[in-house]
Amino acid sequence: MDNIPRVLPKNCDVVIRKGSWDMLPIFRIIEEKSGVPDEELYQVFNMGIGMVAIVSAGQADAVLRFIRAQRHDAWLIGEVVKGRGEAVVV
User: Fold this and answer.
1) What is the DSSP letter of 82?
2) 87 near 2, Cβ under 8 Å?
3) Which of 23, 39, 65, 70 is exposed most, by the fewest CB atoms within 10 A?
4) According to the model, what pLDDT value does residue 17 have?
5) Which residues of the chain have a pLDDT value below 50?
6) Is residue 35 left, alpha or beta, with left meaning phi > 0 and alpha meaning psi from -120 to 50?
7) 17: helix, coil or strand?
8) What is the domain partition of the chain in residue ranges?
């Protein structure tokens, strides 16, 4: 999740909620077998998140409907909050 802070203003964080998307089974296996801390797995593998679009809260549902109408998977995985330009996984 290292790339997300690159697009954030310095006074905003992104809070990403674990379990808010369908994680591929391979990431569960890596998580269970590796002994690597969660923080590292999310940083290195993004746990299956391929692309993130940051949109206004008022447009989020419309954006999700549009992406899904194109036959792609899409989830609301978090929110932008006041902060220091970081991505935080909770």
Assistant:
1) E
2) yes
3) 70
4) 94
5) none
6) left
7) coil
8) 4-89
